[in-house]
């Protein structure tokens, strides 16, 4: 009996402790979401669209550097690079900060901060403002706590003109050893706006963009870890269904994860879209939403255009005049914040674990 009550007390203490600890981690995730929304609004209202090589792109780096400086982050680094795009040399930058962690493991969490579709009226709100704001806020808020691993939070420039920032980061910083070789990379590109959240791994067939396919890494391990955590936390992340050329859960090399996968680094890629829509080119995830306001005419029962020959809009947000905070808030009230919150919760838990411990030596 005594043994039983001692056991019961122990259980009660452990349970209340872990509940307390969990709510601390959840509160941190909420702060990350709140800060991300504030940063996103600052970027959109003060800077707006951020085409590769533009002054607005440079202003975005300054905004991130200022936020990280105010948070007393000491390991902020930048990389400037020039690339020739359609016969014109443009200058862009990557900016990152590394937070040392409790293990030798090194995780890179990256998002591009440039945008495209300015002429169409895009602000780059979901592609990729939400994710750039999240990466900025994660570094700012997590710097006060012990992390499971050493984490580099990086914002890439010039993604929309051929993944230039990620290529420069991998080829010049990682391969030279100036940035320690990552054990994994998580790419955040368009993590809000679309109907569903997905976590992808690379196709088993090496990406055509790889200079050297012998080092290509198609491991689904990071995707698996994140999906398992999402399941435990009851967060609605999905595996994308199989589509000709793309087996279940696997994605092509059209974003910043590709240079990492080419270099042999296991990657996962989080994105919000809708692979159940029969879009212009099939079920390829380019049609992001079934909201009728994003279609010329939507056949809701077949989840495709009423007239495939005349449809022009196809439920697309990225790179269009719909990728704006005002428009998206009208079409899908609260969605950007809700999806951002899911990704925040997943990543904060992944990097911190169940218990929040203040960073040693602060
Ligand atoms: Zn993007």
Automatic annotation (TrEMBL):
Pfam families: Peptidase_M28 (PF04389)
Family annotation (InterPro entries): M28_fam, Peptidase_M28
Protein keywords: Signal
Protein origin, superkingdom: Bacteria
Keyword Zinc-finger: no
UniProt domain Peptidase M28: residue ranges: 94-330
Transmembrane segments: none
Signal peptide coordinates: 1-21
Keyword check for Signal: yes
Name by which UniProt lists this protein: M28 family peptidase
């Amino acid at each position: 009996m005594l043994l039983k009550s001692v056991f019961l007390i122990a259980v009660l203490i452990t349970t209340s402790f872990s509940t307390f600890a969990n709510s601390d981690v959840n509160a941190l995730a909420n702060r990350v979401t709140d800060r991300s929304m504030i940063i996103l609004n600052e970027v959109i209202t003060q800077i707006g669209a951020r085409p590769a090589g533009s002054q607005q792109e440079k202003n975005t780096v300054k905004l991130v550097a200022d936020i990280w400086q105010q948070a007393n982050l000491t390991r902020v680094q930048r990389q400037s690079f020039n690339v020739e795009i359609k016969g014109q040399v443009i200058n862009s930058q990557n900016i990152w900060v590394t937070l040392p962690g409790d293990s030798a493991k090194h995780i890179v969490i990256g998002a591009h901060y440039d945008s495209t579709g300015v002429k169409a009226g895009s602000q780059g709100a979901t592609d990729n403002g939400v994710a750039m704001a999240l990466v900025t806020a994660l570094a700012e808020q997590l710097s006060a706590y012990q992390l499971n691993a050493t984490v580099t939070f990086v914002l890439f420039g010039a993604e929309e003109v051929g993944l230039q920032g990620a290529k420069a980061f991998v080829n010049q910083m990682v391969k030279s050893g100036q940035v320690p070789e990552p054990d994994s990379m998580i790419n955040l590109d368009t993590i809000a706006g679309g109907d569903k959240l997905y976590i992808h791994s690379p196709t088993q067939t090496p990406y055509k963009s790889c200079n050297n396919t012998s080092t290509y890494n198609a491991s689904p391990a990071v995707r698996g870890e994140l999906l398992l955590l999402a399941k435990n936390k009851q967060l609605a992340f999905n595996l994308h269904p199989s589509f000709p050329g793309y087996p279940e859960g696997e994605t092509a090399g059209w974003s910043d994860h590709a240079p990492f996968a080419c270099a042999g680094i296991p990657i996962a890629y989080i994105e919000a879209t809708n692979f159940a829509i029969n879009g212009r080119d099939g079920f390829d995830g380019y049609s992001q939403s079934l909201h009728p306001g994003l279609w010329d005419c939507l056949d809701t029962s077949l989840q495709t255009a009423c007239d495939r020959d005349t449809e022009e809009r196809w439920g697309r947000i990225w790179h269009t005049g719909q990728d704006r905070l005002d428009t998206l808030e009208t079409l899908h009230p609260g969605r950007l914040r809700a999806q951002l919150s899911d990704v925040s919760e997943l990543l904060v838990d992944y990097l911190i674990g169940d218990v929040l411990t203040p960073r040693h030596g602060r």
